[in-house]
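Appendix C reproduces, verbatim, an entry submitted by the partner laboratory led by Prof. M.T., so that reviewers can inspect both the input and the predicted structure.
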Amino acid sequence: MTLTELRYIVSLQQTGHFGKAAEKCFVSQPTLSVAIKKLEEELDVSLFERSRRHIRATPLGEKIIKQAKTVLEQANIINELANAGKDPLGSMLSIGAIYTIGPYLFPHFIPQLQHLTPDMPLYIEENYTAVLREKLRQGELDAIVISLPFNEPDVVTQKLYQEPFVVLMPKNHPLSKYNNVDIKQLEKEQVLLLGQGHCFRDQVLEVCPSLGKKLSNGPNALQSVVEGSSLETLKYMVASGLGITLLPASAAQINLSGESSLVTRPFANGLITRTVALAWRASFPHHQVIDVLSKAIRMCQLGSNISE
């Protein structure tokens, strides 16, 4: 049994597909298939149920894969301990951010970080919270930038800044005559939302429960709620006259073709916000790196900085 074989079965369980698992592990599909079969023979158990349509873990396979994840996490801690004596600001840093933060943070953040740590190689990734959470635990990412709440065992979070939500609408929309908008005013509007899997979607539905009720009404709900794949898609949909949308303030400031036809309005009292935070494994040994990351992100001034 090897760590490589354990990575293979974890990847296969996550993807449910031999080809995708092999691609994720940067090996050929036959290599991954043979290695998993060898592990099953060594353990004398079937880890997966195989059919033409589905690859799923057996009940015993689920237990073994869960333990494999723990073993891989512990192996990563050993690597981190071994690297602890190296120059932390000269080693590769891997950082991820959720889709609704990354495009608006990274263009400002990377120059700031390069100014503070010119010798630090950097890898960045944008993804869903659930994917970033898993990659952080497995050591594929050193730190992630997410929106709270975010609860994960053995992971430390640090609040960075508070960012308000705004309403994006056409310049001639009836709500544009107000200096600010009340959440109740959105109940009768055609509101554009992100699709499922985005935490920002969940936050919008939390502050405006009536939108959730429309979604639960079935196909007719599309007359009142339209979903998009990204914040940029939503902005272009608003520009096309399909409705209005809620955005983090940082996303609303990005240039957009035809932006002169769009306006934003804050919410009354500025009470609708999100808290952006940095998260890293408690075992991560380079606290100096975390301090520099935090400083570089705060220097971007995308919201009201929070001191902890």
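Residues 33 and 255 are 47 Å apart (CA to CA). Additional entries are available on request from the coordinating office.
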